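queue> holo job accepted (zinc ion)
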Amino acid sequence: MTGFWNADAPDGQPVRLTYVSTAAPGGTAEFILRDPCGRVIGRLRFRACHECRTGRILDLWVCDMWQRQGLGRGLVRSLFAHRRGYRWNTTLQSRPGRAFFAAMTRETTLSLPHGGPLCPHLMGWLRRTWRRLLHAY
Ligand SMILES: [Zn+2]
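queue> job finished
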């Protein structure tokens, strides 16, 4: 599934936001931001459980040139709008990551703690991945 719409654009240039989802329920999905030339300039990867209405932000990245223009916030806001009413958490956060998610929590009043998956389905996927990795070595 792919959709297009314009995010808040710095300098009036249209930035394109694409939503990509894997076919498997609970699989990794992502929002990708592209600049007017089509280069990837930001990405938010997440997994969500439809049944429990919980989700987990795996990774949030905005390239250096486009930072501090609200694109990271735009990505998180798009995610919250896309999966309204879900509870979220994040993987382990770096220091700038913690400050960013604390600011997002204040802005959206949605709590974004870091820690383990919020439901057994997402946890199960993690365990299966571990098992696969362990068998591979
Ligand atoms: Zn679940």
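queue> Residues 49, 51-52, 119, 121 surround zinc ion (CB under 6 Å).
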